[in-house]
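Email to the structure team, subject: NAD-dependent protein deacetylase model.

Hi all, the expression group asked for a predicted structure before they design truncation constructs. Nothing fancy, just the tokens so they can compare against earlier work. One-line instruction: predict NAD-dependent protein deacetylase, return tokens.
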Amino acid sequence: MNATEQLVSWIQESTKIVFFGGAGTSTESGIPDFRSAAGLYQTEQHSPYPPEELLSRHFFNQHADIFYDFYRGKMLHPQAEPNGCHRLLARLENEGRLQAVITQNIDGLHQKAGSKNVLELHGSVHRNACMDCKRFYSLDDIIRSQDIVPRCISCGGVVKPDVVLYEEELDQNTLYLSVDAISTADLLLVGGTSLTVQPAAQLITYFQGKHTVLLNATPTAYDRQADLLITEPIGEVMNTVDQLLG
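Reply from the structure team: attached below.
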């Protein structure tokens, strides 16, 4: 039995699967990750501001125009479509096998594939709000805005994406729900994440179930604790799993 067949077997015997994923989940959909050789943190090295600076709360407060130039150019991918990973997870949820998707991504591709119980640790580009009156704005509103910094049509306040920037705390209720889902899962699938971003990466330590499967192209500090390692592209692997499940 090869690794993919083993994964299929464990999925078939599980009823409380949880998926914990990062940027690598969406690279096959054409969205670059952050820390790989082709990721944003590498390709932006020659910018006057490192990405960690550009994506910090204090930088947004002081230089919203520069933030939005980077954000629109590098972090918005409205044409991206779900890949095999997103589609399989939606199928497993629909079949009652998967109880939650916990993601560090902000792209909304899990919902686009059909997943409903998605816990977004770092927020979503699809939710935006005026910092003053809290009026909601969609991703389309941000893209269509003629202003460098989108402004509220009600009060003129700055519109901020509902994404967690450096120096901001994660939503406590989302963290609570994530811990609850992982701690009650019988199979934990971890995919497309370097497991270096805290506190998100610490969440998988709450798992007490049968098997942990790590699907990641590069090594992580958690490799030795996983029951199964798969390094092939996650979308391709999940497509194969989908086919083998019938």
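The mean pLDDT is 94. Strands lie at 17-21, 98-103, 118-120, 123-130, 136-137, 159-163, 187-191, 211-215, 228-230. Ping us if the truncation boundaries need rechecking.
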